[in-house]
TrEMBL record:
The lineage of its organism: Bacteria, Pseudomonadati, Verrucomicrobiota, Verrucomicrobiia, Verrucomicrobiales. This is SIR2-like domain-containing protein. It holds the Pfam family SIR2_2. It comes from the Bacteria.
Length: 342
């Protein structure tokens, strides 16, 4: 297929952030949040049986901790089916996260995140904190896509501010507690992660379909999108990893984030394909100090690693340490975005 001769669209900016930014509000770590929403017993009451929260040297990956706990919960309360337990977990999660509101944290670093005026914001978090910040800043929800009942390949909201004509899309790529009652999009466990990877693989390779007004829509493979700009419709956040500069912060990209690593891996393979490598012009930038293993892997994935000094705060650090750290990182990102626009 010949490469399109049309003028290449301008590269936009996307921000991918994780739970690290919510730690600035005093939010629990991901394992602690899991413990509070799934585990029905206080620590110390699991004597004689395995506890994933106390045996750090013998710890399961995060998604498997979820599977272990939710299956154990169902075994304890056999009158409940898995859907009922999942619904209970979502309500607990919602109760935990709704304590953190923009009104209660007017000086939060997440307000500075909104100041970046990026074109897209992606988050692995389950909350709608950024959405509410934008509403406080006179943004209105102009459109939304929420037809998916389990996965979040296309799910997003479009926010627009009439005064400045600025608009941005918000993507909760691992789902949110604030979805429809008949859906469960929160991506916690292995079953959900693996199913999501299947959807991502379909999307990238051109076998993904969805229904729109009773009509089946097919997505062309990413390989063809890279060759023909007219095929780029931006239906999913997955596209951003190939056509937008993506700035990653507050996310450690550990092996548990297998869905994101899968995309980065396939992108790096295509960067080595002489037929299309020159069509991938965007940058992926990771801000933080990953482990040596992850840093080496990201290098092979053609991800730029911006290691900051001093080191990011540890998992048990006070929220002010997180606040100071991310304020510095956001200044660096804002400067980089402005330079790319000039």
């Amino acid at each position: 297929m010949p490469v399109s001769t049309n003028k290449t669209p301008a590269i936009k900016n996307a921000i991918l952030f994780g739970n690290g930014l919510m730690r600035t509000l005093g939010s629990p770590s991901s394992p602690d949040l899991l413990k509070q929403t799934i585990c029905s017993r206080p620590c110390g009451e699991c004597a004689g049986s395995y506890c994933p929260f106390t045996e750090e040297k013998d710890c399961l990956p995060f998604p498997l901790i979820y599977e272990y706990l939710i299956l154990k919960e169902q075994k304890q309360y056999q009158e409940k089916n898995m859907r009922a337990i999942s619904a209970m977990m979502r309500e607990k999660l919602k109760k935990q996260l709704e304590r953190f509101t923009p009104q209660n944290h007017p000086e939060s670093v997440l307000h500075a995140l909104a100041d970046l005026r990026a074109d897209d914001y992606l988050t692995t978090n389950y909350d709608t904190f950024l959405h509410r910040i934008l509403e406080l800043r006179d943004y209105e929800q102009a459109a939304s896509q929420n037809s998916e009942t389990k996965y979040s390949i296309r799910r997003h909201v479009l926010m627009r501010k009439q005064e400045t004509s600025h608009s941005c899309r918000l993507w909760n790529i691992h789902g949110t507690y604030n979805d429809r009652p008949d859906s469960f999009t929160i991506q916690y466990g292995y079953e959900h992660y693996c199913g999501c990877i299947g959807k991502i693989d379909n999307y990238l390779k051109g076998t993904y379909t969805y229904q729109l007004r009773k009509k089946e829509i097919s997505i062309p493979p990413m390989y063809k999108k890279l060759q023909d700009d007219k095929l780029r419709k931006g239906e999913s956040w997955i596209d951003l990893f190939f056509f937008s500069n993506v700035h990653i912060l507050g996310l450690n990209l550990s092996p548990e984030e297998i869905d994101l690593l899968y995309i980065l891996n396939l992108r790096s393979r295509w960067l080595r394909d002489p037929k299309i490598k020159n069509r991938i012009r965007n940058r992926i930038v990771f801000y933080g100090q990953p482990t040596n293993a992850v840093k080496a892997l990201l290098k092979q994935f053609s991800v730029e690693v911006r290691s900051s000094s001093p080191k990011p705060p540890g998992k048990n650090a006070e929220k002010q340490a997180y606040e100071n750290y991310y304020k510095r990182v956001l200044k660096v990102i804002k400067s980089g975005m402005q330079q790319s626009e000039n």
